[in-house]
């Protein structure tokens, strides 16, 4: 059953909105950030990673955002151009705002952390006048990043894009993408997350992220209660992630579909969520059954947590398909499905 209907006459398949940043991942892993001396630079930021992931999977991708007016901003635009991602709606900050920088710490395969520099940041200076109605009109789906709602003027720009999407029947995918350091308080989080959650068609988030989104509605909810709440607001699919315990997709027909992670030798514990989202969305765009979308997303996520980078390691369709084939050959046909 197809739970989302996409307008195949549109110019672009998908357009994420939000931050594009730079990740500095340590080459000398298994050390603290204070001890690490050598880092490798990658494109980063959840919306940017999702854009790259879908472009690698062969989709026509655009991006709406703002970068710094310097060499780091040029790096982002050049990287997107190399991946075939349309950069016509990426603006350059004119008031000295910096690109977001993330330094990661990989102490062990299961112990990772990040240190982010996001003061006076370029992506959160995206302005309402920089949202192009015609662009949103010509997209099958936009991906709204929750982090883009953290501050003005970015939050108003995102809400304007949301209004245009609803006006032109563009599918709205809400990737909750919670980053604690971006927000002032939990009430603010609940207000802006719930505004988008009530107007989206698909929500992807962790248990913690859904708790934050409905923080002004209820103190505690089960996954089933949470899914029922957001489906009732008009979403067609609600995906709740539980990390190493897998994830579940709930749909409007009352069904739920479970997936667990593929067995893999971890290198790091971050980056899998962006690969999961891009591969899951790819399956939806292809009209696959829900469990196949989840399996594809889970496989892509496993490949990413076994890799040093996020964006650079985003796989192709053939690579994900081969990974699934080998995993089932080794571990059994239903290795990830529950």
UniProtKB/TrEMBL annotation:
Organism name: Pelosinus fermentans JBW45
Q: What is this protein called?
A: 5-dehydro-2-deoxygluconokinase
Q: Does the keyword rRNA-binding apply?
A: no
> MF terms per GO, please?
5-dehydro-2-deoxygluconokinase activity; ATP binding
User: Which pathway?
Assistant: Polyol metabolism; myo-inositol degradation into acetyl-CoA; acetyl-CoA from myo-inositol: step 5/7
Q: What does this protein do?
A: Catalyzes the phosphorylation of 5-dehydro-2-deoxy-D-gluconate (2-deoxy-5-keto-D-gluconate or DKG) to 6-phospho-5-dehydro-2-deoxy-D-gluconate (DKGP).
Q: Which GO terms describe its biological process?
A: inositol catabolic process
Keyword Kinase appears in the UniProt entry = yes
Family under the similarity heading: Belongs to the carbohydrate kinase PfkB family.
| Gene3D superfamilies with a match to the protein in the record | 3.40.1190.20, putative 5-dehydro-2- deoxygluconokinase
Q: Which reaction does it catalyse?
A: 5-dehydro-2-deoxy-D-gluconate + ATP = 6-phospho-5-dehydro-2-deoxy-D-gluconate + ADP + H(+)
E.C. designation(s): 2.7.1.92
Question: What is the primary gene name for this protein?
Answer: iolC
Which positions fall inside the Carbohydrate kinase PfkB domain? 13-316
Which CDD domains does its entry note? KdgK
Keyword annotations from UniProtKB, A to Z: ATP-binding, Kinase, Nucleotide-binding, Transferase
| Top EC class for this record | transferase
* PROSITE patterns named in the record: PFKB_KINASES_2 (PS00584)
InterPro entries named among the record's database cross-references: Carboh/pur_kinase_PfkB_CS, DKG_kinase_firmi, Myo_inos_IolC, Myo_inos_IolC-like_sf, PfkB_Carbo_kinase, PfkB_dom, Ribokinase-like
Q: Which Pfam families match?
A: PfkB
